[in-house]
From TrEMBL, chains A, B:
Signal peptide: none annotated. The keyword DNA-binding applies. This is TetR/AcrR family transcriptional regulator. It comes from Streptomyces thermoalcalitolerans. Keywords: DNA-binding, Transcription, Transcription regulation. Residues 35-54 bind DNA.
Length: 227, 227
């Protein structure tokens, strides 16, 4: 009895091993080509145990998506503190994003590519996480715009504390869509391109984004007539 | 004989009707859910004729991807003339991109989402078109950077006509990846958001991108120490 017990690992540990193996294989080969036999073998467990714990290949795939999405979201949020200036929040968030996707390339492939290939409910789960990210980035952009607009608005003798923000909310959402799309594209490129570090990818996007956003927040919008 | 002939349309016309119907149904329902029966019905032809002309559902899907990719590429390239200033090329290219994706929402869904769901060879075909787009945008960014760097470099008494560009080539590729990723994300958002016009989406991205790129090209890179 004692010998058997020392060989046994807690269920939570086994499950993480299964998810580790599954994310690797799904990411490298795609959902269809990854077999439950191979996932069990790589996890060092029996195939019946994988089915016992995670029910089916579909459920295992769903568990992978949820785990990778949560890990990515937490990696970014843990580095972005609301008391930082917006510019620093954006930089820390981008660095955390590119560091995490570089350290977990298969996890990123599962989220960015594989999740869409198996239709619902997986595509909807990833879309929900993405929508949360975009709302988070849009709030960050709006907060930055408010910070910059505030000194003038408060100094002009207006009737109250509230002032008209320099940036309309739907414009902030559009900018957040652009920024998140750019980050997704760059993460896949950085992972596929030898020699591109997470820091470089983050700096490229910060360079691309910040001066543009910064100008917008100062009310200096680009105009077609200038081109 | 004469009556039969007047009813007949040329093969090329019939094929375009089949592709029109297929793109609509693939874009609206996805590859799996779109049936050949429905495609034939919507195209106003018999199902055997669809198979005779396009061989299989897979081949029909491939033909849709190629037609939509070619149409999008041509729509953008036709508006971007090399004699324009880089800023104008970028603006015209973005306007053409968002106008085309707004006018062909199902075609865009097929390219952006559906093509990845059926694995190879479709994902590879779309990836090849995307790589061409990115190379095109990277060249545009490099040309703009050279234009801006040239006056100083030529005035400093260097040994020849050639000068060190302000922007390294791999950095231009990274920026092009970011810009194309941002455009893809915004196009899907604009199509899904009532009231967002192609012009607005193009202006949002131009605002986001140009001031940032413009600063880079003037040698004013963003630096982490500033945040």
């Amino acid at each position: 009895m004692g010998a058997v017990r020392t060989k046994r690992k807690p269920r939570a540990v086994r499950e993480q091993q299964m998810l580790d193996a599954a994310v690797q294989l799904f990411g490298q080969r795609g959902y269809m080509a990854a077999s439950m036999d191979e996932i069990a073998e790589r996890a060092g467990v029996s195939k019946p145990l994988v089915y016992l714990y995670l029910n089916s290949k579909e459920d295992l795939f769903g568990a992978c998506i949820r785990r990778e999405a949560t890990a990515l979201t937490e990696a970014v949020r843990s580095k972005v503190r609301p008391d930082m200036p917006a510019e620093r929040q954006l930089w820390e968030g981008l660095r955390a994003f590119f560091t995490h996707t570089a350290q977990h390339p298969e996890g990123w492939t599962v989220l960015h590519r594989q999740a869409h290939t198996q239709g619902e409910p997986f595509a909807a789960e990833v879309a929900a996480v993405r929508a949360e990210f975009i709302a988070f980035v849009a709030q960050l952009i709006l907060a930055a715009a408010r910070d910059r607009a505030a000194p003038c608005a408060r100094g002009d003798g207006g009737p109250g504390e509230r002032h008209v923000p320099a940036l309309p909310e739907h414009e902030a959402t559009g900018l957040a869509e652009a920024l998140v799309g750019a980050a997704e594209s760059l993460a896949a490129w950085a992972n596929a391109t030898p020699g591109v570090t997470a820091h470089q990818a983050a700096a490229t996007l910060m360079n691309f984004a910040w001066a543009g956003l910064g100008n917008l927040m100062e009310g200096r919008a680009w105009s077609p007539s200038a081109a």
